[in-house]
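Handout, page 2. Input:
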Amino acid sequence: MGVMRIKIEDEVDRAFRTKIAELGGKKGSLSKYVEEAIILWMRGRE
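Output:
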């Protein structure tokens, strides 16, 4: 499993984490949703 260290704007971080919490986030949710976002982004670039 790969590890990425990224920097994002504070507002984006807060909004993303808030949305995850609204969806009932639990341990591992942040990684799961970031991975999903990356996959969707890549599919949109094909």
